[in-house]
């Protein structure tokens, strides 16, 4: 768990290497809003999410979240 804001709200996060389409270099970045760590597998489609508030550390500026399929 990681403290995300001054209100001491916590949320599980993971760190993962993210490779964007068309790019050969991976980014080490946070993955948030996942239902189970077991679902974080190589090749999982993710989307970038930008913070809507001021941040104290560059790692909090944006993160990735799994793209949930409705099928």
How are the secondary structure elements laid out?
Blueprint: E1 2-3, E2 10-11, E3 14-18, E4 27-31, E5 46-50, E6 62-66
Antiparallel strand pairs: 1-2, 3-4, 5-6
Compact overview of the structure:
The chain is mainly beta and 71 residues long. The protein contains no helices and 6 strands.
Helix content: under 10%
Largest sheet composition? 2 strands, antiparallel
Computed CA radius of gyration, to the nearest angstrom: 13 Å
Output mean pLDDT: 85
- What would you call the shape? globular
Indicate the low-confidence ranges by residue numbers. Answer: none
Q: State the total count of DSSP E strands.
A: 6
Number of helices: 0
Task: Tell me the strand order in the biggest sheet.
Answer: 1-2
Strand content: 25-35%
Computed structural class: mainly beta
Q: Give the SSE order as H and E letters.
A: EEEEEE
Measure the end-to-end span.
30 Å
Written account of the structure:
- The chain has 71 residues and is an all-beta fold.
- 0% of the residues lie in helices and 34% in strands.
- The chain contains no helices and six strands.
- The chain has strands at 2-3, 10-11, 14-18, 27-31, 46-50, 62-66.
- The protein has a two-stranded antiparallel sheet. It has a two-stranded antiparallel ribbon with strand order 3-4. The chain has a two-stranded antiparallel ribbon with strand order 5-6.
- A hairpin with a 6-residue loop joins strand 1 and strand 2 (10-11).
- The chain is globular and about 30 Å long.
- It starts with a strand and ends in a 5-residue tail after the last strand.
């Amino acid at each position: 768990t990681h403290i995300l804001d001054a209100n001491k709200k916590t949320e599980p996060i993971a760190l993962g290497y993210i490779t964007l389409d068309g790019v050969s270099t991976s980014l080490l970045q946070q993955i948030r809003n996942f239902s189970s760590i077991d679902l974080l597998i190589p090749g999982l489609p993710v989307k970038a999410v930008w913070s809507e508030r001021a941040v104290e550390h560059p790692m909090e500026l944006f993160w990735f979240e799994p793209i949930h399929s409705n099928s």
